[in-house]
Amino acid sequence: MILMQDKRPLILVAIVSMAMTILLYGGGMFLIAGYLPPPSPLLTEPEIASMYRDNHSSIIAGLTMAFLGTGFMLPLWVMASVFMAEVEEGFPYFSIMQALCALATVLFTALPNLVWLAAAFRIDRPSELIYMLHDLGWIMWATPSWGFAFQFICFAICGLSDKRETPFVPRWLCYLGLWVALCVLVTPLVPFFTDGHFAWNGLFSFWVAFISPNLWSALLAAYVIKRIKGNRPQLTEGVNA
Amino acid sequence: MNTTRKSPCTTTDIEVTPASLGQNPTGVAQTKTTSTRMPGEVGLWIFLLADMSIFALYFWVFIWNQSLHPEQFLQGQASLNHSLGLLNTVILLSSSYFAAMAVHSARGQNLDGFRRNIQLTIACGACFLLVKAIEYGEKFAAGLHLASNEFYSYYFAFTGIHMVHVVIGLSLLSYLLFSLTTAEKIRQQMANIEGTVLYWHMVDLLWVVLFSLIYLLQ
């Protein structure tokens, strides 16, 4: 039986989780596969097909790295649920909900990589099939946001309910989480647009909706590490009680 | 939500010494308290400012696209129902007044006044949604939708996002109405009441700018 009275090892979990996500996912998808900025939805069928054919190896290498990187998002979020459960009395509904939504977020982030990998797998297949798989991957990647939104809402409910003298995260971070939940609200508009700020490469659907939750996650990791380092006895208070 | 927590910017205690007063007949230091309490809490203000910043970005995008497609935006504005837009502005401004009155009643421990004003605020919010639904219905009946053109993309997207804000606000107001049934509960939940009303004022403010921008500004 593992007793998690001492949460200091979780510092390592948070650091590894963030570092590997940035390195594998960010590095693979955006640097090696070259998906930053995302290819415009206005690109034509021959342009997309030649993109996959010309950059075949780098796309496969980058997307495989990114796929592995998505798994490293989960430890940080499960760790957040551990701290959330200390606040909840009785059945830890919001902690479980947050962890399940994190799993959904990870799946919706990981699966498009497999779709794009399938597009790059046989480059001699008809261009229209590559084009379709490319579109499918981007719509699957950019549209679902409910996982992120529910995660932030659950987190904020627990964080704002934390009445201990030193809450596990500052209250402003919870409010900022609610704001991020509103920021990702626009992503269901992605399938309506092939151009503009709501398209999958647009200002609101990509730059705001993708960057804001990730920056918030980095802030969460920093605060959780600070909390574990700075106030260890109070962290175990809830477990001992 | 923690309701007993004190806002970091609540009161400023200024110690008034004989030297600072110049004269003090009793010779005893007096303390004067000046109230500069900020409603809500710092985190809530960060949320409100961040949300207003995103809307500022929406407004900038709208104006920028308007400059790129002036004819299309002019035609789009002309096709909107200005009367319904104005009606919704009046409705939301009234709702803000009732929301402010609800806070005033809550501070005075007036339970009936508080509940009546919250009910009126909710009624106004529901009317806003009804009018918006009628307006959307008119557009859909005319074959106009999100992907019709640039103007209608932004019209539906921005007013739709604002409508979600209204629904969230109505949910929070309904929570206050159904959970605060005694004067004691109102006293305990004062921070939540102020926070919800601040949010509602922001929703109102955003609509006023959206109305000016989408319906009127040419």
Topology of helices and strands:
The complex is a heterodimer of chains A (241) and B (218).
Chain A: H1 9-32, H2 45-54, H3 56-71, H4 73-87, H5 93-121, H6 127-142, H7 146-161, H8 171-183, H9 203-230, H10 232-240
Chain B: E1 11-16, H1 18-21, E2 30-35, H2 42-68, H3 70-79, H4 82-107, H5 111-141, H6 150-179, H7 183-188, H8 190-216
Antiparallel strand pairs in B: 1-2
Helix pairs in contact in B: 2-3, 2-6, 2-8, 4-5, 4-8, 5-6, 6-8
How would you characterize this protein structure?
The complex is a heterodimer of chains A (241) and B (218). Chain A is mainly alpha-helical and 241 residues long. Chain A has one domain. In chain A, helix 1 packs antiparallel against helix 3. The C terminus of chain A is likely disordered. Chain B has 218 residues and is mainly alpha-helical. Chain B has one domain: Four Helix Bundle (Hemerythrin (Met), subunit A). Helix content of chain B is 74%, strand content 6%. In chain B, helix 2 crosses helix 3, helix 2 runs parallel beside helix 8 and helix 4 packs antiparallel against helix 5. The longest helix of chain B is centred in the middle third of the chain and has 31 residues.
